[in-house]
Inverse folding.
């Protein structure tokens, strides 16, 4: 597994310059590349990174935008530079969030009878539609107590893991998604979650996926499916992950909606029958 850089508490107390340099290196950009993309001189950028020049709040935000720094971390950059945070973090139950809450509910309701969930940046379940009971049937109740975590639900031996037919493939897919998220956000909580989930024992009969042959890792597939055993049936789902397109609130920016669709006609029929029953 590739080495993953994280932002430590010590780094977060440093000035904005070193933090910006860390984000630039994490994005594998040279000073010249970032300077050209941001419309500033490489000399000025060098002075900012070394602390010889204090950036304005506008400059911090301009560089952060080019580096695709998460909104939560942009606030930390502003604080490190001596400025007030620019992005708010409201709870979903706040009055101002009513349009967001309603939009999420419409997506969840509209996806019935197929399962859909909403998770936050730490994969904690924020909401779900009635159809997710199809997936969580038989799960250890302790894993469903708030704050239930979607990654734990999928990979823990008391969760979905024993019923996932292609567990090795699905586990590799989820861990890869988590690693990509860590690379983007540098969130140490996600690193801890990945270490925890990677250490779970495999279900009986499941094997670690062997490295695929180049060019043949997804032969015959359109997406990595979730193959779930429910009773005597094997249901096949593919998923789509959606996020808000233009968020300026931290909570909204960190929400993801994952919708599961039937991967074959038999699954579609079984899900409709489940909903009807």
């Amino acid at each position: 597994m590739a080495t993953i850089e994280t932002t430590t508490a010590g780094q977060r107390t440093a000035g904005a310059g070193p933090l910006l340099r860390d984000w630039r290196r994490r994005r594998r950009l040279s000073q010249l590349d970032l300077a050209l993309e941001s419309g500033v001189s490489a000399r000025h950028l060098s002075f900012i990174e070394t602390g010889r020049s204090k950036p304005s709040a506008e400059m911090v935000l301009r560089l952060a935008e080019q580096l695709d720094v998460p909104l939560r971390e942009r606030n930390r950059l502003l604080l490190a530079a001596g400025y007030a945070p620019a992005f708010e973090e409201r709870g979903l139950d706040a009055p101002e969030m009513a349009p967001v809450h309603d939009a999420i509910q419409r997506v969840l309701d509209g996806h019935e009878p197929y399962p859909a969930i909403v998770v936050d940046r730490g994969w904690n379940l924020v909401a779900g539609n009635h159809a997710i009971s199809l997936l969580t049937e038989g799960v250890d109740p302790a894993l469903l107590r708030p704050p239930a975590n979607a990654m734990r639900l999928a990979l823990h031996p008391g969760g979905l893991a024993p019923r996932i037919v292609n567990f090795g493939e699905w586990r590799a897919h989820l861990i890869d998604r988590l690693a990509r998220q860590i690379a983007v956000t540098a969130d140490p909580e996600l690193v801890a979650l990945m270490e925890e989930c990677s250490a779970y024992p495999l279900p009986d009969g499941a094997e670690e996926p062997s490295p695929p042959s180049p060019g043949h890792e997804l032969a015959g597939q359109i997406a990595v499916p979730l193959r779930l055993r429910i009773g005597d049936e094997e249901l096949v789902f593919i998923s789509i992950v959606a996020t808000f397109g233009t968020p300026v609130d931290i909570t909204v920016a960190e929400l993801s909606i994952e919708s599961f669709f039937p991967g074959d006609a038999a699954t579609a029929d079984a899900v409709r029958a489940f909903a009807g029953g």
About this structure: The chain has two domains: 9-80, 95-206+218-276. Confidence is low (pLDDT under 50) at residues 1-13, 211-219. The beta strands are 116-119, 125-128, 226-230, 233-242, 256-262. The chain has 14 helices and five strands.
